[in-house]
Request: fold
Amino acid sequence: MAALRARGAGAVAITNNYSPVWYPPDWPVSDADAAAAAAYHALHNRLFTDPLFGRGYPELGMDPSVVRDGDLDTIAAPLDALGVNYYNPTGIRAPSTADSPLPFEFAPLEGYPTTAFGWPVVPDGLRELLVSLKEEYGEALPPIHVTESGCAYDGIDDPERVAYLDGHIAAVRAAMASGVDVRGYFVWSLLDNFEWAEGYTKRFGLVHVDYETQVRTPKTSYAWYRDLIRASR
Reply:
């Protein structure tokens, strides 16, 4: 941050990948489940956000010697924006075995449609996330950009992706109506591409890519998103 500012950067931001912590539907939540959810929230969300806004690191049993004098002040330098990546909530419950190496256990969130990745499609999770960031960090929170939001589906005619984007954009609008300062929404991704450990097996693009011929074919979702943008001008 300091180096970018010193070299004239006019706007500097950071992007984090967030996931609201949910219990499985109809799960009889115990104190142990609540503790597990708090632990996962601290590890996945707060660990990367609290220090940005002057709160230091959450209590995770980390060695305090790794944080040197002045580190937290440097980390908490003011941001011009916060990037939010969102794909789905994470179901969490208490470990089912006493010898679990983690203080939580993943639990499937059933009852929702799923993408080709098997991820639950929960647009309201994005609204909840944006509102919770505003509630948690208040005036310290800079304007937000949803820097990644998308889904993996096969095929060029992709009504599932259209429904996904429609629901998630509506969730952003609902968060804005609740007072969250959201400045932009970016779809992942324009093109089908290399998706981390999944390689070329999962397609997130608005444009289909034939990996053998490199032919690009706009999908149904591409035309839908183009028309949405035009209508919003």
Remarks:
- The longest strand covers residues 13-18.
